[in-house]
Amino acid sequence: MKIKVFFFGYLSDLTGTNETVLEIAATDRLGDVVRRVKEHFPQLATMGNSVRFAINAEYGSEDLSLSEGDVLSFIPPVSGG
Is residue 48 over pLDDT 90? Predict the structure, then answer.
């Protein structure tokens, strides 16, 4: 099944894109998919642990199941002043 992946902030600079489509297995959980995205974009290894992940605009845990057409967002910490 396919999901769409969005990268926000500096993560889009690291990946060179702000979105991609990823083919995943029906049994994949959020943690599995995040690892696969990091394998596809090895430059994300520098992103640290402060990045949050949302499925369809709701934050999710690593054991969350995904469905066809879901949208996974990589959301870096907000900074500024």
Answer: no
Number of domains making up the chain: 1
CATH code, domain carrying 11: 3.10.20.30
**Cβ neighbours of residue 58 closer than 8 Å, sequence gap 6 or more:** none
For residues 12 and 76, what is the distance between their CA atoms, to the nearest angstrom? 10
Asked, for residue 80, whether it belongs to a domain, the answer is: no
Q: Quote the pTM value.
A: 0.90
Per-residue model confidence as pLDDT tens digits over 17-46: 999 999 999 999 999 999 999 999 999 988
Cα–Cα dist 65/30, whole Å: 6
24 part of a folded domain: yes
Q: Is the dihedral of CA 35, 39, 44, 48 positive or negative?
A: positive
The DSSP string of 23-60 is E--TT-BHHHHHHHHHHHSGGGGGG-S--EEEETTEE-
